[in-house]
Amino acid sequence: MRPSVRGVLLDDEERLVVFRRTVPGKELYWSIPGGHVEPEDASLEHTLRRELLEELGAVVSAVTPLTTLTYPYQGAVKTQHVYGCRLVSMDPALRHGPEVEDPASGVYDVERLPLDPAEITSRRLVPEALGVYLAAHITSLPRLIHRSM
């Protein structure tokens, strides 16, 4: 199973940028932007920057490795590399790819959450392992993800 990356993205007001996911036939859930490593990606950070541009039209700075999660998924083991980063700019007009072009993918509404554990635990965040990590570390994120000079 291909590894993936997730971007724990903080905006200039120290809020967490997430997707509120509405998918036909599925229960409402939230997710952190990111995606699978592709063969043409030069590095995990390259994958992260590509995915954030595709999904959010976002440019980021202060990319900081936070953790690597592994958990069972569809009969295999899924590995997700989680990075913290700071939002430099976001232009929804730059969004592209199957997440925004295929109606079967559902809706990816962008929300910004205060850095409060209750904001994570009160939502169904997928994958669950990432929700557990964020609930435990959410208030530390500004300290962990340094602002670029």
Automatic annotation (TrEMBL):
Domain Nudix hydrolase: 1-131
Domain of life per record: Bacteria
SUPFAM superfamilies named among the record's database cross-references: Nudix
Pfam family, one: NUDIX
Family stated for the protein in its record: Belongs to the Nudix hydrolase family.
Identification of the protein by name: NUDIX domain-containing protein
